[in-house]
Amino acid sequence: MAADTEPLRTQADLLRRGLADLRAEDAELASILDAEVTRQHRTLSLVSSSCAAGPRSLAASASALVNVTVEGAPGRRHYSGCENVDRVEALAIRRARELFSAQYACVQSHSASNAIYQVLTALAEPGDTILGMALEQGGHLAHGRVEAFAEANYKAVRYGTTSQGEIDYTEVRQLAMAHRPRIIICGATAHSRVVDFQRFRAIADEAGAIVLADISHIAGLVATGRHPSPIDAAHVTITCTHKQLAGPRGGLILSGRDADTKVPGLRSSFRRVLEQAVSPGMQGAPAVNVIAAKAAALGYAMSPPFDAYMGRIRATADEMACAFMARDYEVVGGGTENHTILLRLRGGISGSIAESALEKCGIIVSKKRGPRENRSSFAANGLCIGTGSIAQRYVDAQGCRQIVDLVCRILDQVQPHGEQKYTLEPVLQEQFRQQTEALCTMYPIREYGDR
Ligand SMILES: *Cc1c(COP(=O)(O)O)cnc(C)c1O
């Protein structure tokens, strides 16, 4: 019982004791937690959003800050006892502003979808029109799909992409002029081309709309100058912190040169209405432990190792796209300009069959409808893959080719029966799974940046 009575004076005491107690007193949960770490090590994630949170973010989120309930902003709280949470939130804000060269940053949103809804609530009235990218063309659920909040509260109009996977800016402009949306959302979930934020702004200025950029998928590329920044082009930018920023699950709201200008039709500035919309508008107490984890991730994102990590994300994406094309697979747009590769499958294999067969062999991918594809997402023959995770494994050019080779060999052995049923010999499946594990062992997940 000695361990139970030892004082817990430091963050290290808390983490050590927590791990020891879990192991000793709650083996059931501890074993699941360990099993998930093992699963992540033994499977190859080619999901375009996936990046493992860095250990310092994990440690910061497991901190005593979770015990503090606060509301409001640093220095303007509705509670006392806030000296450290104020310092943590101010630090996260400072780092977010510095990393993205923003005038305004809010670090409280619990997720990117929350951040989007907070921005929509701040800037639009129910019934207003929102122009966003169609889900099946690469957009995100929160941008205006039928079931989502946005569609329930606003009139959603959608634009798509060209056959080359480029945003159809002509269509964006036509829709903007015809529907006069209050807000145009730009940014995507399954998109392999550079987004021209300036062009969105020019269209919005012509149509009298506000631009909301969502860089959840490309935040690291933006932060390191590998993708044009929307901060000054858009009125407001949001991102999640758990994809390329490799931080905790959460969202950020940012604004650049428009932060202190008046919102069209309102008497307050963007900064003021955004602040109000987050808290008390849609959120109670922020998760300060998660804000600390965001600060850790943002700090890391300003370091040379993070820059190198983003360099690897881009290089491996080019490498993989070339390797697929060398195997005669069609890559939408003939390559990629970011971390995402959109593939078209062949031989009657649908995206959902490929997703399931590859998962059985230890490789995780996402099915995805191709540009201008009318079939359902189950019948469509598109696959979306990305390099966030394999770049954390330091997979080199040769490794990229080996992974592509394995994926192609698996798909060659799949016999489709219709849109969703298929056969893959169990003996082969087991062999493929071992080959995936061998690659995972050759390229283990490391604390990114420790080389
Ligand atoms: C992942 C993603 C989101 C949603 O992030 P959550 O934090 O899970 O809500 C929003 N927008 C885009 C473009 C995304 O890719």
TrEMBL record:
The keyword Transferase applies. Its cofactor is pyridoxal 5'-phosphate. Transmembrane segments: none annotated. Signal peptide: none annotated. Keywords: Pyridoxal phosphate, Transferase. Its EC number is 2.1.2.1. It is an enzyme of class 2 (transferase). Residues 23-406 form the Serine hydroxymethyltransferase-like domain. GO terms for molecular function: glycine hydroxymethyltransferase activity. The keyword Lyase does not apply. InterPro entries: PyrdxlP-dep_Trfase, PyrdxlP-dep_Trfase_major, PyrdxlP-dep_Trfase_small, Ser_HO-MeTrfase, Ser_HO-MeTrfase-like, SHMT-like_dom. PANTHER family: SERINE HYDROXYMETHYLTRANSFERASE, SERINE HYDROXYMETHYLTRANSFERASE 1. This is Serine hydroxymethyltransferase. It comes from Pseudomonas idahonensis.
